[in-house]
Amino acid sequence: MAQFEALVKESHGKELEISERLKVVLVELEAKGGDVKEAQAYINSAMDVSAELDSTGKVQYVIGIFSLWFMDREGGIVFAGRLGVAAAVMLGFWFLSRLSKRLVKKAFVKNQKGSRIMRNFTIRSIGWVVMTIGIMVALSTLGVEVGPMMAALGAGGFIIGFALQDTIANFASGMMIMVYRPFDEGDFVEISGISGKVEKMSLVSTTLLTLDNKELIIPNKKAWGETITNYSGRDVRRVDLVFGIGYTDDIEKTIRVLRALSVEHALVLEDPGTTVGVHSLGDSSVNIFLRPWSKTEDYWDVHWDLTKAAKQKFDDEGISIPFPQRDVHVQQIHA
Q: The domain spanning residue 262 has which CATH number?
């Protein structure tokens, strides 16, 4: 095998020397209008040592060429070393990325400032930044010029930006939502007339989970550009209830009954206080409003409990709840 490699190396050297000389001759001949196609084909055939070998010889030839390249000072050994260094660099930056994410996560646990959306985005971004730096360093160890690559990306940025203008608009809107925090993950919101719980958010879209368990994905551009109602934005909410009683019923008695129901409910807050009064005079009823306050998470429990309790208490106290009715007067005209 060693003798074969020596033969291949010697033959390869002669091929290079002959090819360089003939190349000059062919260039001059072609410049003078000569036909160099046949000569070029002959040279290619003569230089292709593997053309005269069988399948086993071709395999040995390829192995020999690879061995020469691998043992060369500028060949495989150097490349393998660089590849090993690049792999070690990537592994190191991978561990550094995980460590950075853990440290940032612990810092957010100690300091609860900022929305959950912003915290999750920052943690992921730290990992991306560290790994991007690791890729650039690894490419540098392999001899790749990173500078021209960055310049090429910058030159193509305009074209990419034009093609992805909607995505970039969603990205920018997502950043605005993270900075100004009109809502957070877990909040119950209404966006563009659509109500639901914010299940998750990315830089380009917001996912809402509706009360009937439907998943709606809203582009951040639309979410940021429309009116946002955040029902979970405050710790305390007012429960607005309206009850209709008959015109012959006692208004003051009804107000006392509703106020007592509010005071007795365990989830109704003492401060702010409950407000009860006459809301309006309807076509068929006197409408009494009841406005207690509760914690945001107790809103619907208070709403449903007081509605049920009011109906039962009205029945016990003889307070009527009228339904819409219309009196029809028939006048008979005699001929």
A: 3.30.70.100
